[in-house]
Amino acid sequence: MVVLVVDALGWRLACETPGFAAMLPHRRKLETILGFSSGALPTLFTGQGPEAHGRWLMFRRAQGASPFAGFEWTRMLPRRARDSERMRRALTRVVERRGVRGYFHLYDVPRWLLPEFDLAERDDIFAPGGLPVDSLWDALERRGISWRRWNWRTPEAANLRELERCMEAEDLGVLVCYTAELDAALHHEGSGGPGVRERLARYHALLERLARPRAGGTPWIYLVSDHGMVDVRSCVDVMGRLARLPVQWPRDYLAFFDSTMARFWWRSPTARAAVTAALAAEPGGRWLADEELARLGARFAGREYGDSIFLLDPGVLMVPSFMGKRPLAAMHGYDPSHPDMAALLWSNRPVPEAVRGLKDVRGFLEAELDASAREAA
Length: 377
Ligand SMILES: [Zn+2]
Known about the structure:
By secondary structure, the protein is an alpha/beta fold. The protein has helices at 11-15, 37-46, 50-53, 79-82, 85-97, 136-142, 156-169, 181-189, 194-210, 238-243, 269-280, 290-295, 361-376; strands at residues 2-6, 26-30, 59-61, 117-119, 147-150, 174-179, 221-224, 230-231, 234-236, 253-257, 261-266, 285-287, 308-312, 316-318, 330-331, 343-347.
């Protein structure tokens, strides 16, 4: 079995690319989750929603010891030193030395504000025991299946070569490869970009080689993604709008500005009222009510991801934000019901009708492991 997880490969982009992955005729559109890969991948791997596995966005409010403890001192530095690439790398190394083994990037989060936050992903989510709840990887271990995985920890081209080599050797039961280069190309170029076309052609050619029948039979192939991507049509300056208010962060409230979401932790009712009114007047987004968050599986009892959340409309990007100062060509992290946000599961094996969302993938793959064991018996 080969599971190729392509970050940001949207259902629509895949369907609209002529001939793409034609060897995988069984196709399901998957509803993604609200949030980013830091929440979507754990949902794929565990079969549970963000509220259940506790992962949603990269940064959350520090509740115990923050891996950024002590970084307040950077406020004393001149802006150029504080915002430099060298400083980012140095602080990243400190965080790694403190034992964080998950995926993270400091982006443009003000360095001195970091101690207010925590990283949700502290461990390797592609490894057994790497998630707070039971995952597909734990199941593979329990079943005693020989398997191998590749992800962002090693370069993508080498990973794909190694995947093919292992396939030829035919000595492993399950091969899992996660790729993030399509996501990067889409952010950079948008859905029509040449780098995007090139990545899609590369994955297509790889799948074609992998799907060739061989002595041991035709391999079972599963192409999966975590979310789609929406081309950016406009930018809004949420931080600028808030800067004009008499209430200010971090004094009156704490805020985190993701690319498509502004999240708030209130320190006073006055701050809450002023910010709520200011952003209600922003035409590019809307406040998410508790009922909607609950429906989307993202109402966290501990409010670690925010007391209140303002979500931008599909195709609208927050610039500047804590994630970047410059516009990008495409983004995700929007309402999961937008057609460009849908993910996919394509296979050369039949996929049941009941597989409709990210949550259904883990159970389906486990059923496939059962089927494979029956076939081998
Ligand atoms: Zn992305």
